[in-house]
Every structure is written in structure tokens, then in C-alpha cells.
Amino acid sequence: MPYSIPYYYTIRRALARTRVIRTLLLAFFVFNLLELQWILNRVAEADAVHHNKPRRQERIFIASVNWNNELVLRTSWNHALVDLTTRLGADNVFVSIYESGSYDNTKGALMELDAELQRLQIPRSIILSPVTHEDEINSTPGDGWISTPKGELPRRIPYLSRIRNLSLKPLHDLAEQGITFDKILFLNDVVFTASDVFELLDTNDGEYAAACSMDFSKPPKYYDTFALRDAGGHETVMQTWPYFRSSVSRGAMKYLEPVPVQSCWNGMVAMPAGPFLTIRPLRFRGIPDSLAALHLEGSECCLIHTDNPLSSRKGVYMNPLVRVGYNGDSWGAVNPATNWLSARSILQGLWINRIRRWTSTAWLKEWIVQRRIDEWAALSPSNREPGRICIINEMQVLDVYGWAHV
Fold first, then answer.
1. How buried is residue 119: exposed, middle or buried, by Cβ count under 10 Å (0-12/13-18/19+)?
2. pTM of the model
3. Under CATH, what is the fold of the domain 60-405?
4. What are phi and psi of 104, to 5 degrees?
5. Residue 77 to residues 59, 101, 115, 187: CA-CA distances in angstroms?
6. pLDDT at 22 over 90
7. If you average pLDDT over every residue of the chain, what do you get?
8. Which residues, at least 6 apart from 226, have a Cβ–Cβ distance to it below 8 Å?
9. Whose CA is closest to 210, among 166, 274, 297?
10. What are phi and psi of 147, to 5 degrees?
11. 274 Cβ partners below 8 Å, 6+ apart?
């Protein structure tokens, strides 16, 4: 007669398994509550920190490119820049602005800023270019152009790279005169405060190849998906907190510490000036036209980090204590930190992030791009692109009123 387990023992085993499951669920629930409380404590601590002046004496070169952003200049940016330069001190700062053919009255707003900086004796260079996007499109094709169904058109990224490099020209001119700077602060057309800048400059105790803010246009979603790559070189798994697929980046973000990433820009960036002044100076660039022709593109604000020799040694960080916005409402929605992270949004973010990591992969998307890069690299020994993490499956061209996908 075959041996059979008594019904009594079957019930006991089932009950034991149930108790184990309940214990594990309870432990996981308690862990979530403890993690939530820890993060909320960090949020409260973050809101208690305010920097009214820089923590260390450094000379800062401020670089900005402007296009069709009169509104933010007049409502916030000009005032914030004046406040920042005043607190840094005229002897410790230089402002370089390059405006590129705006259609609104950005030029007028910058002329008002120029007058105020003149009154305060802040050294500066403000270039107002008459060349519009339409002029660029109607110019003679050359490097940085690509064939499209609509004909030859200038690519967006080489154009932006050229404009950003023009904003750095005074840095090189001053260096030839023996005037140097410790750091470059790149400022987009964002709402920011001087305190934001001081916190950014102090990221990781001032030791970094680059330190970026976080930027928001439609909170709670962050804005700059094009340039941000986590510590593993991947795009974020979601546009809301805690954002990242990489456990290293995600762990730092959860506790509002400087987040190790491979690339970021996010509206406001601080970088040591040294690499921009070497014999082979660091420059903004786009990927080669022949690679872009395979329907690929990479942000100049990502490539700058893959090209920077300091990135591997000093690291690139995104600072979650510095949050800027593309208008006043966006800035206010994420400042103070309690506006940005509530108990509900934290728990929701933790679970959505887990589910997306468990149920998705970046492999297929990245494989498609990698296959095209490999095909291009096989065509010539000179076809090499160090910024592979930056490249996505898009083609972007300049448009009269901005830019467009092709």
C-alpha cells in the first residue's frame, strides 16, 4: 500500500507556509515604512539648508546661450544673475552670454541686463547675433548638415555645439591675458537663485568633473531626458522620482545625496575650467555626420562628459538639492523639497520604479543603436565614437522656429 501523508500534516505545512508569507509581507511592509520615514527626514533636512554665500573662494566663469527667452529673462533670470554676481564679487566672476537670432525681444532684455552689470562693474561679454535659424537654414550646406526627405538641412546638435563654444570664447581670450577661472557655470534659461548656485558649486565638497542641477518644465516630471544617463550609462526608467534603473544612482537619489551619473545637464552645470584650456581643449560637439545619417543623434551636453578626461577620475554628479524650473510655477512646484516629495509620491515612486525595473529592459533599445554604430565603425578604422551612451535613435534638424525630428 503506497505511503500517504496524513491530512493533519498537510494542513500544518500549509499553515506554516502561510505564516512565513505573512511574516515576509509584514517585514517588507515595515521596511517600506522605515525607508519612507528616513527619506522624509532627509527631505526635511534638505529644506533646512540655505547657502547665502559660496563656501569656498573660487573664480567663476558664467556661460549662457539665449534664444527666444525674453519672458524668463525679464521675470526672473536677469535679477537672479545680478544677485549671483554681486554675491560672488566682481573680482571673482565673468559673465559670457551669446544670444543667437531671437524672434522675440530677448535682445532688449539682455541689453537691460548689460546696463545693470555695467553699473555694478561686473566684467562681461554679451553678444547679440542677428543670425536667425532661418538664416542658418538658407546658408550653404557643409559640415553639420544632413540629407533628409526635405533636402539638405543643418543638424540641430552641431549648431548648438557651435553656439555653446562661442559662449566660451572669452574664456580663452582671458586666459591669453593671464586671467583664469576655477570653474565654469553653464546657465540655461531657467528660474534659479544664488543659493541654488552655491549649493551646486559645493556638490561632493567641490570635487567633481561636473555637477548638475535637476530641471523641471512640467513637474513632477524632470525635463532633460536627452542628456541624463545613470551610473550604468542608461536612460532613466521613469521621469519622476526616484528616476533611475541603476542601483547606485537610485540609492543616492533616495537619500538626496549627490547622484553618481555618467552624464547630465539639467539646466545648470558646474565644471572645472581646466579641461577647456588645455592644448587640446574640451569642446562641445555633435556625433559625425556620417553616423547621424544612420538616424542617430547624441546631445552635445552628454558628449561633453564622455569627452572630458576628468569624468572617469572625479565623477559626474546630479545634485537633488538643486532644482531649477523653466518658469516660476515649475520652480515653486519643486521648491522647497516638501513641495516635490510627499509621503504619497515617495511610496508611489518606489513601487512604480520597482515594477518598471522588474518588467522592462533597456537592452533592445540600446541594441538597435549599438548595431548601427557597429555597422558604421566597420566602414573605416577612423570611425570611432567614444560617446556611445549618449546616442539615441533620432534624427534632429534645425527648424525656423526651433528644431524638428526627421
1. exposed
2. 0.92
3. Spore Coat Polysaccharide Biosynthesis Protein SpsA; Chain A (3.90.550)
4. -90, -160
5. 21, 19, 15, 10
6. no
7. 93
8. 299, 301, 302, 392
9. 274
10. -80, 130
11. 310
